[in-house]
Structure of NOMO3 protein:
Amino acid sequence: SQGGGGGMRARAAAALVCALCCALARGSEDIVVGCGGFVKSDVEINYSLIEIKLYTKHGTLKYQTDCAPNNGYFMIPLYDKGDFILKIEPPLGWSFEPTSVDIHVDGINDICTKGGDINFVFTGFSVNGKVLSKGQALGPAGVQVVLRNAGSDINIQATITQPGGKFAFFKVLPGEYEIFASHPTWMLKESNTVVRVTSSNAYAASPLIVAGYNVSGSVRSDGEPMKGVMFLLFSSSVTKEDVVGCSISPVDGFQPRDESLSYLCNVVSKEDGSFTFLSLPSGKYTVIPFYRGERITFDVAPSRLDFLVEHDSLQIEPVFHVMGFSVTGRVLNGPEGEGVADATVTLNNQIKVKTKADGSFRLENITTGTYTIHARKEHLFFDTITVKIAPNTPQLANIIATGFSVCGQISVTRFPDTVKQISKYKVTMMPQGKDKASLVTTETDPHGAFCFKAKSGTYNVQVIIPEAETRAGLALKPKMFPVTVTDRPVMDVTFSQFLASVSGKISCLDACGDLMMTLQSVSRQGEKRNLQLSGNMDSVAFTFENVLPGRYKVSIVHEDWCWKNKSLELEVMEEDVSGVEFRQTGYMLRCSLSHAITLEFYQDGNGPENVGVYNLSKGVNRFCLSKPGVYEVTPRSCHQFEHEYYTYDTSSPSILTLTAVRHHVLGTIVTDKLMDVTITIKSSIDSEPALVLGPLKSVQELRREQQLAEIETRRQEREKKGQEEEGTKPPVQEMVEELQGPFLYEFSYWARSGEKITVTPSSKELLFYPPYVETVVSG
């Protein structure tokens, strides 16, 4: 204001005088000049925040001062002549005109020497703000932002956002304003806001927001643009609602492959091959091309592309190319069969694909031509097929299995002695009910495994074992394995070694106790097995396990018992052998005899009745006792033994030895008269005294005495019965026959073995010839 100017000037003059006095004190050669002026503003500002600085023309700071807080006055003293720059340095965002003044101090004509004012005029504050990408902390560069007075359509100022989305307006005086943002291609979600400027820099009330950015790309085929290719947009972070300008309807015939991505929308390429997603918010996206003709899906490369939208439009690289077309097919296990999973389908021996669980496969980037297709899967067989593939044959004919493996194993657990290991056996497979011409043969591997290739049908599988191994006892079961092949491999054809069990029982008369059995091969020498058995019952079961086929002799080893059969022969063919029986018939008694004798047996507890009489010969005799227990054995013969009788216990068998100690010597004397006859027997053994026998009775006399005794007995019987009734005739008188010569006198003597005896007969009247007899009794 003009009124206040004179007062200011007076104060300035006083200050200058003071300054000059100081300067004169330094020396009259220095010229002292004061450069002063005002910081002026039509609106209320805080002057104390503003600094005025003096620099040399080379940029060195010479002096700095603050403004007077009440009116903005400043004063800078100068001690030198020369060129200087006076600058105003307000708070950031405050605008002044001018911002700097060049001064040439010559002490004569310059503004400072002449006492003129250098003034800086305030032109306004700054207004700051941001344009952000939706949902992000930063925003794009290049958005046009304009400032208008509230309610006005006239732009006061216009600016462009910087990287990160920041913008600022300067030289804005206090007041109410509106801010508008716009962009030729981007859509804005929040395009305007307000700001109120008072006595300092101001900030927009709220950020402006870009809804999304345009993303474009192009698609070609053989260098030509392709129209009508669909591009499907997916994202795991962005929602459908945030995307503008593309079709959200689902796409027919498209199979998504990645479940983690959610489908947003699609666009279609135009005549020039370009496609554009009009507005995509910042975020990660995946685009998948999909091009389907009338009946066929073509392959587009890349088949999937991930891209990131930040804070700008995006041109998708690389360019998409329509390559070839896709064909699908299926691999089946039969004409109406199921799909074959994990089969490898090879195209021209180069391209390989695996089938899915339903047997389907897909060949991509195919161009029109003739191809050979081969399917492979373990244990399935397919014919190689040749097909012409073109866009009008998107679906190949089914590839059908023509054969299946029939696999099996030969398992041998116990090799016969002469067979060291499993050899390579021949295995045959023949269709059931067909002639032998269609028989196929294969060989096992060293581990006994084998495989055939077979079409559907019923077959018989058989193993051919060499003659030598059959003789050695190697047999397999089953003899023949029936197989039905339908629509899958048969992997369980198993031939296992046939090992029989030979079983039966042993029947004993009493508790069986410990027994041993043997199984001996008849045809294979040296193949013998023992089996120890034990039982306290009267029967014991036995089983020989793992017996090779062949002829065998089964024996029971128990020498002290008698058996119905001690051994049996049997043949093991294709079945287990059972029902083999050994029956004990008695207890073996072995006697060692010095002479042929008769033995009588009595058994304890069975009373005195005779159990058995056996005529035995000299030497060792064997015979059977039918019951267990203790027996009394009495020898009967013309010999005397050590004991009158012997005992034998079946539970502790031993050899019964009977040795004769004396022998019966018989003699006869013949006379023609009944006379007194005596015999003297003299022994060579000194301890034996001479034996005198007699007088002897003749055989005839003895017989007569016997007859008389019998007559007397009969008479007594008749008397007893009272048969002599009156009127009956007396019985005829029984007579004894007269004695007639020659008369025989018999005598006997028990002689020891080797004893020499002299026998001398004597009589009162008779003489004998020979007068005596000498004999040695050998026994």
Notes: The two ends are 187 Å apart (CA to CA). The chain is about 5% helix and 50% strand. Residues 1-29 have pLDDT under 50 and may be disordered. The first helix runs from residue 3 to 26.
